[in-house]
Amino acid sequence: MSKVLRRCAAGVAAAAATVVLAGCEPLDSAQADDVMSSTSTAVEAPRFTEPETTAPSLPETTPDSRPLDERSTAALTALADLPVKGRAPKTGYSRDLFGQRWSDDVDVEYGHNGCDTRNDILRRDLTQIATKAGTRDCVVLSGTLNDPYTGKTIEFVRGSDSSSAVQIDHVVALSDAWQKGAQQLSSDERANFANDPRNLLAVDGPTNQRKSDGDAATWLPPNKSYRCTYVARQIEVKAAYRLWVTQAEKNAMTRLLTDCGGDAPEATEEPATSERTTDRTAAQPRPQPLVETPDSGGSAYYANCSAARAAGAAPLHAGDPGYSRKLDRDGDGVACE
């Protein structure tokens, strides 16, 4: 070891911190570890306790231990309290309206913990994780995901060509939220919504892309065993942020949760306000059920534009769930205009 390096080592050990002395080259973490190890017996360093700078451990998600039928019943009860309205126009929607991507400056769980939201969710949802040195155990380099959307096991490795294999999905899509009440939220509330762990899941990247901004009436996870949990989570998030559902969305959620053993609360009979209102309600087309094709990965299919409009999905753009050329008569990429 050179005289300069020995002098640096002594300085580092004596201070018990990464201090660069005059005439010393800065050391990277691996070199610093080697130096400290090689000088630990030669230099008597005072005991020094560093302040806690490691990103705090995230609490493990505790699975809901209630039977599926009880969870489904609770979700149906919460669903009954959500307002039912049509979609508001998507006009003016921008991802930027929901704040900086993966911001830590939010007032929800994990907020202000010194780690960005994406890495928080990776650390929560992945197992056997490895983190990058020098990031206070924040940045996840690798790990294993048991994907709830497909049921597959996915090995995550951070990299420009590999990170997209695992994406963080907004269970209630931001665009869907924008059209169902988020326009009335404050900018801080929208930032909280976009970073709320209740609304975030690490999932298979390609499946997340196929979901796009679909709601329960137009997209469900291919893994059928997860669908009731997925829909119940959407209801929880929408209730927390005062969002609404469309009638088609509520119908799809009710069908699914009932099939999972849930009991919907008894509806209170409301008197018709007028004969005209009753007639208009009766004349509305019945929402068409979600039909999945074997290779759709959960995508929607609409027999005609009336079905798409009843589901609150029109207009459909090329690439949207349910879009097909037969519905796009003028071939301009927008169906059921």
UniProtKB/TrEMBL annotation:
Protein name as catalogued: DUF1524 domain-containing protein
Every Excalibur calcium-binding domain range: 301-337
Polar residues composition bias: residue spans: 51-64
PROSITE patterns from the UniProt entry: PROKAR_LIPOPROTEIN
Keyword Ribonucleoprotein: no
Leader sequence segment: 1-22
Lineage: Bacteria, Bacillati, Actinomycetota, Actinomycetes, Mycobacteriales
Keyword presence, Signal: yes
Keywords recorded for this protein, A-Z: Signal
UniProt-annotated stretches for the region Disordered: 32-69, 259-298, 313-337
Start-end of Basic and acidic residues biased regions: 323-337
Native source species: Gordonia alkaliphila
